[in-house]
Amino acid sequence: MLIAAIIIAVLIILILALAYIMFNICCARTPTPLIKFIIKNSMSGELDLGEDSKRGAEMWNNSDLEEVCLESRDGVKLYGYYRKHPNAKRAIILVHGYRMSALPTFAAVLPYYIEDECDILLIDQRTSGKSTGKYITFGITERYDAQLWTNWMCEKRPDLPVYLDGISMGAATVLAASEFTFPKNFAGIIADSGYTTPKEIVRHVISSYIPFPSAPLLALIAMMFRIVTGHPMDSMDCRISAAKSKYPIFFIHGKMDRFVPYTMCEENYAACTSEKSVFYSETAEHGMSFMADKDALLQHIRGFFANNDNLTEV
After folding, report:
1. Which of 90, 207, 301, 311 is found 20 to 30 A from 182 (Cα to Cα)?
2. Is the pLDDT reported for residue 143 higher than 90?
3. pLDDT by residue (tens digit) across 42-63?
4. Distances (CA, A) of 249 to 22, 143, 265
5. Portions of the chain given CATH number 3.40.50.1820
6. pTM of this prediction?
7. Mean pLDDT of 4-18
8. CA 81 to CA 66: how far, in whole Å?
9. Quick one: three-class SS letters along 119-138?
10. Are 90 and 163 in contact (CB under 8 A)?
11. Helix, strand, or coil here: 184?
């Protein structure tokens, strides 16, 4: 009996240790070589961000920026960088994705948002850039950060319509936040390459990039995720949030996306009950629709703004 008890105890310790290792690979602030490999191999070739990104980064770095720091509901210091346009027509909050940096993510679109006379708030998601935080939660806690930033921007610029614009995990974050009630000058959401739930995207990535059955790995990650963060991995569902939302949502997705399959966008779009529109790029990989179909997508984005700028009480 004693030997059996020791064996069981050792097995439990080993399972918990493995679960903690897998959780940290997936969610800890510092990316592991495995995560770097997965992100790199989600694209078919070398990423060429082109002249728009170089121009956007240069314009941003030469701007007069206001550093903003807010404290989240769980004590995380959140940093953002605000660029005020002298003739602003609207304000946009840009929310980057999983293990990404804010400026490289949005550099390509920045010249056009600046030329279209937008105030811009570029934020560092928790665990990224200057923002603090130990663990990524795939939008579960990040959605409340998005709510905090939106309330800040709506109060700072009550004279402007305010939009949330997210890509990848940032898109899932803003979609999950879409069910919240925002100030009256909040105008809408752009969600580019968003997934449905944290659990479903982790399952997809495991099955696509790791040569091991996804069910046991997902179970280990989900178990430790709940122990460490206090949240079940299925406690956020973008479809449910989109179904509750009362704000216009513009969905974007590339049909060649291997990291977040475009069928997840189809599910989110189908669930949405508010005013909605969608743009699919036939050739774009993950988060690359703007690069693949810039002119067509810009036309849709500008149309989205035109349709919603004047619908808010400013």
Report:
1. 301
2. yes
3. 554 444 457 889 999 999 999 9
4. 34, 16, 12
5. 48-197+236-308
6. 0.91
7. 75
8. 6
9. EEEEEECCCCCCCCCCECCC
10. yes
11. coil
Q: Which residue in this structure is represented by tokens 């610029």?
A: 157
d(CA 269, CA 162): 21
Please report which residue ranges of the chain form alpha helices under DSSP H: 2-27, 33-40, 50-61, 102-106, 110-115, 142-156, 169-177, 198-209, 214-229, 238-244, 262-271, 289-292, 294-308
The answer to whether residues 211 and 205 touch, using CB atoms and an 8 Å cutoff, is no
User: Any idea which fold 48-197+236-308 has?
Assistant: Rossmann fold (3.40.50)
Strands 118-124 and 90-95: parallel
Closest CA to 138 of 260, 18, 247: 260
d(C-alpha 107, C-alpha 273), whole Å: 31
Mean pLDDT for the stretch of residues 155-168: 97
Residue recorded with tokens 């939302």: 245
d(CA 136, CA 142): 8
In eight-state DSSP terms, residue 173 is H
End-to-end CA distance of the chain: 73
User: Cα angle at 39 between 35 and 43, to 5 degrees?
Assistant: 155
Q: What would the pLDDT profile of 100-134 be if each residue is shown by its tens digit?
A: 889 999 999 999 999 999 999 999 999 999 999 99
Decide which of 22 and 238 is more confident. 238
Please give the pLDDT value at position 33. 59
Rg (CA), the chain: 20
DSSP code at position 31:
P
Given this model, what pLDDT does residue 2 score?
77
Question: CA dist 69 to 45, 79, 123, 212, 229, Å?
Answer: 37, 5, 10, 42, 23
Q: CB within 8 A of 238, min separation 6: which ones?
A: 139, 172, 175, 176, 194, 195, 196, 197, 268, 271
**pLDDT computed for residue 279 by the predictor:** 98
Q: At what angle do helices 214-229 and 2-27 cross, to 10 degrees?
A: 80
HEC-encoded secondary structure of 257-285: CCCCCHHHHHHHHHHCCCCEEEEEECCCC
